[in-house]
From TrEMBL:
This is Site-specific recombinase XerD. The keyword Coiled coil does not apply. Residues 117-313 form the Tyr recombinase domain. Keywords: DNA integration, DNA recombination, DNA-binding. It comes from Actinoplanes regularis. Pfam families: Phage_integrase (PF00589). Belongs to the 'phage' integrase family. Residues 8-95 form the Core-binding (CB) domain.
């Protein structure tokens, strides 16, 4: 029978898991996990040993319960679940390597944390103002695509020109419109969030024009080049996007940059289409959701069921002109 080793701590287990147990996870996720572990797990219970929970200084289920309850005073339920998952997976790995005989973390339930920051959507007037303000920004194409197609931020950051069709096949029967093919993201292995998320989205005229301008600005980019990229041609990370997005918000009267994040462009896409008459089933398809429940509970802020096409609807909402509403 294998005997658990002595002296192995929670910090040892978490560090080992972060270093060697995440080979199938992208670097941004690893950085996020490491930040959470170093901020909330290791300082609080990192010195606890993983050997025999009956011994003093060894981790017990009660220790984990108390730690989670303490964190629930300042962290959201989503963050608490993530912290529990990190610790649970780290201890499971330690158990598989005979550093501990039992995973007490698995016995503990995640409490309810503080209320997270509620997502919201732009009003029509705010959306028009945002499109106008974004025209002078290097993030213009990103903003237009996110707001008018509903693509996720991690999908747009990975979008390359080989997956952009600005012409379509107007002579086909039926005609094939200009489109972007959302087949990749910045997630592990470049996969989209789900299989349903792999989709091709028809482009509203405003998107086509923004992408044509972006293509020209990049000086005839190669197919594999990123549509929205840094000056070095590398993909933007979420911090780059957030800074540039809030700089756009800052010039719009009555809008506080600290109140808005890029993810709310996708929320606004759902609300604007729903308010303009599109059914929740069609919106769910455009968003790449496997069903309507996520669209309804997370993204939708209004609902009026009528069938319309996404690109056609956005052309009706914002118009094809160079200025919003034209």
């Amino acid at each position: 029978m294998s005997i658990a080793t002595t002296g192995y701590t929670v910090a040892d287990a978490v560090t080992d898991w972060l270093t060697y147990g995440l080979t199938d996870v992208d670097q941004e996720t690893i950085k996020n996990y490491t930040l959470l572990a170093n901020s909330h797990i290791i300082p609080a219970i990192g010195a606890r040993k993983l050997r025999d929970p009956r011994k003093q200084r060894d981790l017990t289920a009660t220790d984990v319960d108390r730690w989670l309850a303490d964190k629930a005073k300042i962290l959201s339920t989503r963050t608490l679940r993530l912290l529990h998952s990190i610790l649970n997976r780290a201890v499971t790995r330690a158990m598989a390597r005979n550093h501990v005989m039992r995973n007490v973390v698995d016995l503990c339930k995640v409490p309810t944390g503080t209320a997270g920051r509620p997502s919201k959507s732009l009003t029509y007037e705010q959306a028009k103002a945002l499109l106008a303000a974004a025209e002078s920004s290097t993030l213009h194409a990103y903003v237009v695509l996110s707001l008018l197609t509903g693509a996720r931020t991690e999908e747009l950051r990975e979008l390359t020109w080989e997956h952009v069709d600005l012409i379509g096949r107007p002579d086909a029967d039926p005609p094939i419109p200009p489109a972007i093919h959302v087949w990749h993201s910045v997630r592990a292995h470049g996969d989209t969030k789900t299989k349903k998320s792999r989709r091709s989205l028809a482009l509203p005229i405003r998107c086509v024009r923004a992408l044509e301008t972006q293509h020209a600005a990049q000086g005839d980019p190669r197919p594999g080049d990123y549509v929205v990229a840094s000056r070095a041609g590398t993909p933007l990370d979420r911090h780059n996007v957030l800074r540039a997005f809030r700089a756009i918000i800052a010039v719009i009267p009555g809008m506080n940059p600290a109140d808005w994040t890029p993810r709310e462009l996708r929320h606004s896409f759902v609300s604007l289409l729903s308010d303009n008459g599109m059914s929740i089933e069609e919106i769910a398809d455009l968003c790449g959701h496997s069903g309507t429940s996520i669209t309804e509970t997370v993204y939708r802020h209004q609902l009026r069921p009528v069938l319309l096409n996404g690109a056609v609807a956005m052309d009706r909402i914002f118009g094809p002109g160079d200025t919003p509403g034209a």
